Amino acid sequence: MIGDREHWTNRLGFILAAAGSAVGLGNIWRFPFVAGMNGGAAFIIIYLITIILIGYPMMITEMALGKKTQKNPVGAFKAMAPNSPWWLVGALGVFTGFVILSYYSVVAGWSLAYIFRAIGGFTPDMDFASLFYTTIGVDIGDGPNVITPLFWHLVFMALTVGIIASGVVKGIQRWVKILMPVLLILLLILVVRAVTLPGAGAGLEFYLSPDFSEVTGRTFLDAIAQSFFTLSLGMGAILTYGSYLSKDTTISDNGGWVVGLDTGIAIIAGFAIFPAVFALGFEPGAGPGLTFITLPAVFAELPAGSFFGFLFFLLLSVAALTSAISLLEVVAAWLIDEKGWARSRAAIVMGIIIFLVGIPPSLGYNLLGGFSFLGMDVLDTYDWFANALFLPIGGLLTAIFVGYVWQAKKAQEFANDPPGAINIGDWYGLLIKYVVPLAIIVVLIFGLIDTFSG
């Protein structure tokens, strides 16, 4: 019942909670390696344009749907378009969040493992590539290590389930006020150290000087996918969090704060990583292991580096946890609202299922190391389906729904009530009805052609 529904206690609580959902591995793990594989600064420019033209409009759209209906994604579309198949768009969002969390938990588990790696100490003479391979279970001579990645995947999912079962709103609001600012401070410290390393200039040039010869159709697909992934769009998280907003909350301003915080931290993460990548001789397009190989090497060069490494991976894990909480909350809210399940039952059952679905990507570097889909391993395949297909398709259908079924003008008026510092003008209707759908369709088509032809 709406009357019994939890609401954020204040504006700051919602902004930090939504930012906690957005700021996580997508910023510090995924953004740098995606940028590195797509030409650095050229990708950044395309990404920022995508955030402005697609990310922000979709952010306020999902917030508005949640606040308007006070329901989970499936319930929201049912309420806005009863007796129609539009509820399937909400179901796609729930399913997408489910898939993302299944492999997100695997990568977050690596981060948890690195907390204890840091306790053991980072030294300049360590082989950080081998350290990473050992963590993810790659056979480097002693046989595949199956237990380690599965164990940390299980631990992370258990933490996520525990928080959801006990009440997510209070837990998130209590901790993000401390953890997000500290994470930002640590990133700034890492930036200062990274840019002062000998040879860091090449990394700054790579990050700040665009080379558009590296841009392909896949670059645009990756930019849109990253904007959806890092802002938690298309997976039901923002819509669900929006359903906990009270009537006196301003959507336009809060959406701007969330987008700004998320994008800023992603950009800062790049300044912390790319100078170190070049200074220490790593490959900027190395892929998902970039954060776990490069940053420990940076910590090894710092005074008290092991301490900073411990603190960083602890906070990275917490940032990942706040994002994972929002994803599991989407599924839990659906079961609670639509099926009448108790919160603890919803969290535990779905947590177990998500853990099981996450086993293949967890074992994708050892027992399932021979798997290949279009040249991608298991984890990259999960990531490709979620970010290259499910997220943009869900975003496309949501934009069409709001633009033409709810009507963009009505959504615009709702987002401006009560009015805030940012006024949602008629540009919103232009973007949500034409620019967003057209951009997603074009990028989907060309991105898929590029992927399958490559």
What does this structure look like?
The protein has a single domain, classed as Orthogonal Bundle (Hydantoin permease), CATH 1.10.4160. The mean pLDDT is 86. The protein is an all-alpha fold and 454 residues long. The chain is globular, with a radius of gyration of 21 Å. α1 runs parallel beside α12. The N and C termini lie far apart (50 Å). It has 18 helices and no strands. 56% of the residues are buried. The longest helix has 38 residues.
The largest pleated sheet is described as: none
Binned strand content:
under 5%
Order of helices and strands, N to C?
HHHHHHHHHHHHHHHHHH
Taking pLDDT < 50 over at least 5 consecutive residues as the criterion, the unreliable ranges are none
Instruction: From the 3D structure, determine the CATH topology.
Output: Hydantoin permease
Computed Rg:
21 Å
How do you describe this structure in short?
With about 450 residues, the protein is an all-alpha fold. It has one domain: Hydantoin permease, CATH 1.10.4160.
Q: What keywords describe this structure?
A:
globular, 18 helices, mainly alpha, 454 residues, Hydantoin permease
Q: How are the SSEs ordered, and which strands pair?
A:
Elements: H1 11-22, H2 25-37, H3 41-69, H4 73-80, H5 87-120, H6 128-136, H7 147-166, H8 168-195, H9 200-208, H10 217-230, H11 237-242, H12 251-279, H13 290-301, H14 305-339, H15 343-357, H16 359-362, H17 378-415, H18 427-453
